[in-house]
Design a protein that fits this description.
Elements lengths: L3 H18 L6 H14 L1 H13 L12 H12 L4 H12 L6 H9 L3 H12 L4 H21 L5 H4 L5 H11 L2
Length: about 180
């Protein structure tokens, strides 16, 4: 059934939006749990759809950190540990949210740990979309510099992952690898 997948993805996205608009008194942790349970029923595609819905239509104005959607996004980003970089990159490309400083604003809003920001930067730097790739490279260089200033080391996945040529020189200068 060729038309089943897009219809199912659309219905799933609608269900996530409904949950996020009408939390029914649920705490952000409970709301996140409900969203993740629903996502788990549909496997990786369910998680990708959830992440895409959470990334769409974010307004980075004042008070965004108190938004239920942003709180759920923070929980979901923490819950998607093993596949976060690839899922995040796919979701950002699918959500059509490209604009200058999106990654910086998003990471600040959800208070994502610096190591996770580096992982996301690496994934986005390797995106097939030239605009996103350029923003990912810029973001990654900034975050690697912050890691160096703190005396931290690169996350394991970044040290042993594939790094695009334009990042290699910066990483080697910072970490001597």
């Amino acid at each position: 059934m060729p038309g089943t997948q897009p219809a199912l993805a659309s219905a799933l996205s609608s269900q996530y939006r409904l949950l996020l608009r009408s939390p029914g008194g649920l705490s952000s942790a409970s709301l996140c749990e409900e969203c993740l349970k629903l996502a788990d029923l549909f496997g990786p595609g369910g998680r990708l759809s959830l992440l895409r819905v959470l990334l769409e239509d974010l307004d980075f104005g004042s008070g965004i950190g108190n938004s239920p959607k942003v709180k759920v996004l923070g929980h979901v980003l923490g819950a998607l540990v093993p596949n976060l970089p690839s899922l995040f990159c796919q979701a950002v490309l699918a959500a059509s949210v490209r604009r200058e400083s999106y990654l910086r604003e998003l990471c600040a809003a959800v208070e994502l740990p610096l190591e996770r920001q580096v992982e996301i930067g690496l994934a986005v730097a390797q995106a097939p979309h030239p605009g996103w790739s350029a923003e990912g490279v810029s973001f990654l260089k900034e975050k690697v510099s912050e890691l160096v200033e703190r005396g931290a080391v690169l996350p394991e996945g970044v040290r042993h992952g594939t790094v695009r040529e334009e990042l290699t020189e910066s990483l080697e200068a910072c970490f001597g690898d």
